[in-house]
Sequence to fold (83 residues):
Amino acid sequence: MKELLESTTTRALRYLEALPERRVAPTAEAIANLKDFIEPLPDEPTDPEIVLQQLDEFGSPATMAMAGPRNCCRSWSSKPSIG
Fold:
């Protein structure tokens, strides 16, 4: 379990550190690569490290590059001012 958590941390930090150089929107190639997720469900459990690797390899590039809240979302979570 420790190795999986360390791998997750390494991948998360690499993702965050790459944000300044990334485009905000994913490329068409990254979106197209999501097809690699399409596969039959396995009959047996899958090694969690393999699942993490696939999520990072195919999913991370296809995400919107944001690491924090944006103005549009702040107004939804704040209480309206009275008075």
Observations:
- The first helix runs from residue 2 to 18.
- The helical segments are 2-18, 28-32, 48-59, 71-77.
- The chain has one domain: 2-77.
